[in-house]
Amino acid sequence: MKTIVKLLVLSVVLACYSCSDWLNVNPQTEIKATELFKEEYGFKTALTGVYIMMAEEALYGKNMSSYLPELLARNWYFGSSSLDQLYRISNYDFVSQEEEKSLFSELWIHYYKAIAQLNNILEALESTEVHFKDGNDKLVKGEALGLRAFLHFELFRLFAPHPKEADLQKKTIPYMTHMTRDVNELQSLEANKVMTCIETDLNEAEKLLEICDPILEYTNGQLNTFSGTTRPVDDWQMCRQSRFNYYAVLATKARFYQWTGNRALAMEYAERVVRSEKFELGSNESLAVGGSLVLLEENIFNVVNPDHQDIVEGLFIEEGHRLKQLYSNIETAFEIARNPNDFRGKTGTFWMKSPDYKDTESEKFYAYLKYCGASDKNIKSANTIPLIRLSEMYLILMELKPLTEAKEWFYDYRVARLLDATLDMDFENDGSRMTRVEKEYRKEFFGEGQMFYFYKRLDYTTFSWPNVFVLPSLELYTMPKPEGQLNYELN
């Protein structure tokens, strides 16, 4: 399997971009791209390559899931040394640090390489004479457009200020819709233009996928079982949760409209996803019968890396691992005394003693098992990284709906997570409601990289967990763009 993955990545690299220039296409590469897109299989391979790129350590295999945004949310324990990257990032002391500059530059490059590959696919589709079977041309185009919007939105959330009315004319990031050799086309666009581009791509992806996506015809169970008889004829159309499917478009719209302040549309799209009943909230019962800790049944969109265990075991559970937390902090964050049955805080399920655990209050370190499997339940990791889950749609509705309706949405969520019934009282006023939503974001997306965006979206100046931290400036929520990009923008 690893050999197949490496060959796919290699073919994508050769077909897509030059290693020396992240958005440049040289003549040799163009010839290889032409060869690749001579048949339907080449389009499928190129698109699969984007998912592989997204799942690598440089993006969601590590840096943009369990690492950078989780450090920015201060979710991992860090020592007191300014020489330690965990300490520096967790304290937002990275603007002038070369190691962090390299990290942000690497992220920027890998995102735009994936986007360049999508643009390569989309441009080839426009002129191809290939005859696609089973509506695969629309499926490829819908996924590629949706992914292009998703990846730009991820860049926008990280490298641009949270959009306020007064800041919509400020330059943010480039929105790339075609392959280019012209550095002048790498200029960042104003926030409102980027938002329009994201929305346009998502709208077109929605129109395409609503007429061809197998997820609308089959259940996820049927799409994930290759031995079944009720499923698409083309195996490439299987496993839709690991592709940018129709509901991934709707869920991204819900997230996008919440981010940009369109409450009505955020609620509309979140509710459409929930009411589709294509996904269900994970539960203690599903874990009891060997379900995955990444709650596959509620994954709207995820990526898969067959080598993910090699990455996460070194981060979480091997000797000398880096990402851990004190048990006293876990008790607080997961409200264990109040909600002892909430599986997300359970020792032996989602947490275990770290290899460096010592029985002193300051060294009772625990390791996180979401990506590693549960030690007491024989649950193995699925090598899957969730990027959008059903629970986020519930949390959007819990945050934005009128209090009475929000309480009803919370009830279903609370029951699935085995929370104490007294928490229903948190929806008696807006202040207690938001305190509850904050706590649930922290518990729900621990290790997934979403808590940081919650803080940024709501302009939190003070974090309350694991200890009180005052953000020196809201400007620090905007990550520094690479110096090379800044130089482009000065030309």
Order of helical and strand elements: HHHHHHHHHHHHEHEHEEEEEHHHHEEH
Structural class: mainly alpha
How are the strands of the biggest sheet laid out side by side?
A: 2-4-3
Sheet-strand content, in percent, reads 5-15%
Please report the total strand number as a whole number: 9
Q: Give a quick account of the main beta sheet: strands, pairing sense, barrel closure.
A: 3 strands, antiparallel
Q: What is the subunit arrangement here?
A: single chain
Provide a count of the helices: 19
**Span between N and C termini?**
46 Å
Shape: globular
Q: If you had to describe this structure to a student in words, what would you say it looks like?
A:
- The protein is mostly helical and 491 residues long.
- Helices cover 48% and strands 6% of the residues.
- The strands form four sheets. Strands 2-4-3 form a three-stranded antiparallel beta sheet.
- The chain is globular.
What's the arrangement of secondary structure elements?
Layout: H1 2-16, H2 27-36, H3 40-55, H4 63-72, H5 85-90, H6 98-127, H7 136-159, H8 191-209, H9 220-223, H10 246-260, H11 263-275, H12 284-288, E1 299-304, H13 308-316, E2 325-326, H14 327-333, E3 351-353, E4 365-368, E5 373-374, E6 379-380, E7 384-389, H15 390-400, H16 403-416, H17 430-444, H18 451-457, E8 462-463, E9 469-470, H19 483-490
Helix pairs in contact: 1-3, 3-6, 3-7, 6-7, 7-8, 7-10, 8-10, 10-11, 10-15, 11-15, 15-16, 15-17
